[in-house]
Design goal:
Blueprint (H helix, E strand, L loop, with lengths): L8 H53 L5 H12 L2 E4 L13 H14 L5 E5 L2 E9 L8 E6 L2 H4 L4 H40 L13 H47 L5 H25 L8 E4 H14 L4 E5 L4 E4 L1 H19 L5 E8 L2 E8 L9 H4 L19 H11 L3 E6 L5 E8 L2
Parallel strand pairs: 6-8
Antiparallel strand pairs: 1-4, 2-3, 3-4, 5-7, 8-9, 9-11, 10-11
């Protein structure tokens, strides 16, 4: 199984630093064992052997009447004790494992295989090691007791304490370093999301490290350039669309006074209406959607009013609307988006079969869906058709339009923090769903 690996830069960087610190600590401990702990272990073993040899020599050299006094003096001055040993003395192991095992092995190599060790003898704790005054006399055996702290403190505790403090300080510094890098990146991410919704993000803070400051400055410049380009494009579209209204009105008036045949008048009137509708789409696309402030609005009532107006124009609609769905909305923008979806479905699917329009809550989203029985859209073309001035001529060749309808709906959806989904409808057709956040 693959080990879990965090997805965020913050936790990846912090985890990497933790792993590096952990590897450094392991290497440091190995160096300590190689150059400090093992030499200290050998020194302790040599100390034990030297004490035993000196004690044996002192006992052998001393007069038999003075041995007792010598033992008392050793215990009083050095904290050592020499006791008679028995073959059935219980042997209790020491609490320290590997280090004490090395000490015992080295002492046994120098004093002989008969050497015994115990950590407690007759209820008294300490480091007990046996020795013989004369190797030729096995029964002449004694216990030498040394204070346990002289032998068992193989790893100084203050070294561990300072190591723990160093590791904790390093982790804290690593956390502050990673957070300092992640904060401007998170601000950049939020600004990019705002820009992706068609809004204008506030300028990023350009203070900090050179690389992050350069990135923030570049993003601010890009955002300003996009705002200027968007403003220029909106101004051009609005100007062209406005200038076209006057000759279009004269053309409509001249057509009514021309006295042409009814069929020709109907065809030319239809063309003029199509041109007028395209101009309206240009104006809608050029309009600054953010100029309209969001209001708490009953989307159910708004949609019901819009559908009633569509029915008066002769559009066949089957509606399934959940009541009292109140959201913070820009009402005019939602009306334009819904009208575009209905016009798009009517234009491409015709008016033979009714449109199925629904409004419902799905978890934390509100879904406004317009479903038709037209030719539909191939899944590979969905994202392309959300861009301005794009059309799917192969699938819907008999329909006109400017190619701005779905682009306007997509922009309105992003402005409200939602998205537009274009999915195939079971049995043929298209399901255009406007997803808005429910909160």
């Amino acid at each position: 199984m693959r080990l879990p690996w965090p997805h965020s830069l913050l936790w990846r960087s912090f985890l990497l630093i933790v792993l590096l610190l952990g590897a450094s600590f392991v290497m440091w401990f190995q160096i300590y064992r190689e150059y400090a702990q093992e030499p200290r272990t050998r020194q302790i073993a040599q100390l034990v052997v030297s004490v035993i040899n000196l004690s044996r020599s002192a006992l052998l050299a001393a007069d038999s009447n003075q041995r007792l006094e010598l033992l008392r003096e050793l215990e009083a001055r050095e904290g050592m004790a020499i006791l008679p040993a028995e073959t059935d003395d219980p042997l209790l192991p020491f609490t320290h494992g590997q280090q004490m095992a090395i000490v015992q092995e080295q002492v046994r190599q120098r004093l002989g295989e008969h050497t015994r060790f115990t950590g407690n003898l007759h209820g008294e704790s300490g480091f007990f090691v046996s020795f013989r005054l004369d190797d030729r006399v096995p029964d002449d055996e004694y216990w030498l007791r040394l204070p346990a702290e002289r032998v068992e403190r193989l790893l100084p505790t203050h070294w561990l304490a300072w190591s723990a403090i160093a590791v904790i300080g390093s982790l804290l510094g690593a956390w502050l370093l990673v957070v300092g890098i992640n904060r401007p990146l998170r601000a950049l991410q939020e600004a990019a999301q705002i820009l992706g919704r068609g809004e204008h993000p506030p300028p990023l803070d350009t203070r900090g490290p050179l690389e992050l400051a350069t990135l923030a400055t570049t993003f601010n410049q890009m955002s300003q350039d996009l705002q200027r380009i968007e403003s220029d494009r909106a101004l051009i579209l609005a100007g062209v669309s406005h200038d076209l209204r006057t000759p279009l009105a004269r053309l409509r008036l001249g057509l009514e006074l021309s006295g042409a045949q009814a069929e020709d008048l109907a065809a030319m009137s239809c063309d003029i209406e199509e041109m007028d509708r395209i101009i309206n789409q240009f104006l809608d696309f050029a309009r600054d959607q953010q100029a309209e402030s969001p209001l708490s609005q009953d989307l159910s009532s708004l949609l019901a009013e819009l559908l009633q107006a569509c029915r008066l124009r002769g559009v066949k609609i089957q509606a399934d609307i959940q009541p009292e769905i109140v959201l913070p909305l820009r009402p005019q923008s939602i009306r334009r988006a819904t009208s575009n979806l209905i016009d798009n479905a009517t234009r491409y699917a015709g008016n033979e079969s009714p449109l199925d329009i629904s409004l419902r809550r799905e978890g934390r989203e509100v879904v406004l869906e317009v479903a038709d029985r037209g030719p539909g859209i191939p899944p590979a073309e969905v994202e392309r058709l959300k861009r301005p001035f794009t059309r799917l001529e192969a699938a819907r060749s008999n329909a006109g339009g400017s190619g701005l309808g779905l682009a306007i709906v997509e922009r309105v959806a992003r402005l409200h923090g939602g998205h537009l989904a274009l999915l195939p409808r079971p049995g043929g057709g298209l399901r255009a769903s406007l997803h808005l956040p429910a909160d």
